[in-house]
Amino acid sequence: MKYRKFGNTGLKVSEIGFGAWAIGGSWGDQREQDSLEALETALDRGVNFIDTAAGYGNGKSERIIGEFLKSRSETVYVCTKTPPAEGKWPPSPYCRIEERYSEKYLRENVEERLSKLQIESLDVLLLHTWTRAWNDRPIALEILQKMKSEGLIKQIGISTPEHDQNCVIQLMRDGMVDVLQVIYNIFEQEPAAQLFPVAVETGTGIIVRVAFDEGVLTGKYTGNETFGPGDFRSNYFAGDRLERGVKRTEKIKKEFQKSAYSMPELALKFALTHEAVSTVIPGIRNRNQAVQNTAISELPEISEDMMLRLQDHSWNRGFWYGGK
Ligand SMILES: NC(=O)c1ccc[n+]([C@@H]2O[C@H](COP(=O)([O-])OP(=O)(O)OC[C@H]3O[C@@H](n4cnc5c(N)ncnc54)[C@H](OP(=O)(O)O)[C@@H]3O)[C@@H](O)[C@H]2O)c1
How do residues 256-299 score in pLDDT, each as one tens digit? Predict the structure, then answer.
């Protein structure tokens, strides 16, 4: 496993981190034994960064991680997230920051994160979502900075809202965040335009999420899969979305079939190729996925020519008329 600088935090994080959403729930059946084996295998192979959130199984993912880490002696950084208090998700432009992230609410929520993880100080706390409506008066981040000075949190940041990831650019320039969590994959390449260059310029650590586009970029789907009602993919891949994702993935597969990389390898290596990226956190839910995904760090880098060709596969789904 290779390690990278985590922005200006002074930490070194593993290129492959552990995405711990599925081990908390919302991804169909998940046996706790599989979750524990996945964590054990990932850490044995050098993973030192785990991403979780209050919302992953209502604290279940955090609880499993907290319990599991008591059996390990190496340094592992855990990143967790506080959602805004009840209301619209994503927050609307009219939501008031005082109502969604009040000091009382943030303090109580951070206490709960500490208790679920069974630790005294959080390595990384991210606000689980944001709106640019709060950029000029980001008081929630000021409260987190206060908690940082009190020792309750070590690094703070935001997980970008998927419809407006660039809303955090101003916050980086204003020195309000240490790290960010961003969607970046072969389809979603917009962060390369400005968000990543500003992260490099400001020394903001970047965690990449959803590098497999929720599984489709692993190349294993045929388009005929169905997901149960409790599985968030039944909504993410609703209508013809899975079929369209699979069609585009098949094109990539065909174009790169003679390369040395499988689709999961190509997807993770693509995300790791940008210099702004510190760690990529594929979702991992069993031992096999832990073995396969961690091994990708040591593979040769993707050539410049391949990167140029992969750039052609970016797919802007943010427009009504685009990508149809
Ligand atoms: N901040 C946020 O709002 C937010 C949102 C989404 C995710 N995240 C974080 O980012 C992490 C990663 O995103 P994600 O888990 O949503 O999606 P992802 O990484 O794009 O896809 C993960 C899924 O792909 C499958 N998979 C993993 N490795 C594989 C391999 N080597 N071969 C074939 N299939 C493989 C697994 O599902 P199956 O085994 O079921 O196929 C896994 O759950 C999450 O776990 C979470 O920590 C954060």
Answer: 999 999 999 999 999 999 999 999 999 999 999 999 999 999 99
Q: Is the CB of 26 under 6 A from ligand 1?
A: no
Number of domains observed in the structure of the chain: 1
Give Cα 77 distance to the centre of its chain.
14
The mean pLDDT of 136-162, rounded to a whole number, is: 98
Tokens of 249: 């993935």
Segment 232-255 mean pLDDT: 96
Q: Which pLDDT score, from 0 to 100, does residue 251 have?
A: 98
Beta-carbon neighbour count of residue 88 at 10 Å? Answer: 12
Pick the residue whose CA is nearest to atom 37 on ligand 1: 215
- What DSSP designation does 92 have? P
- For the CA of 292, the closest atom of ligand 1 is 31
Radius of gyration of the chain (CA): 19
* Neighbour tally for 151: CB within 10 Å: 9
Position 138 in a domain? yes
Q: For ligand 1, is residue 82 a contact (CB within 6 Å)?
A: no
Structural domain that includes position 275: 3-311
- Testing ligand 1's pocket by substitution, the residue of 27, 31, 82, 214 carrying the most ligand atoms inside 8 A of its CB is 214
Tell me, in angstroms, the distance from the centre of ligand 1 to residue 146's CA: 32
Domain presence at residue 34: yes
What does pTM read for this prediction? Answer: 0.98
| CATH at residue 148 | 3.20.20.100
pLDDT of residue 322: 52
- pLDDT above 90: percentage of residues in the chain: 97
Ligand 1 centroid from CA 67, angstroms: 22
Is 317 contained in some domain? Answer: no
Distance CA 184, CA 186 (A): 7
The pLDDT of residue 317 is above 90: no
Q: Does any domain span residue 104? A: yes
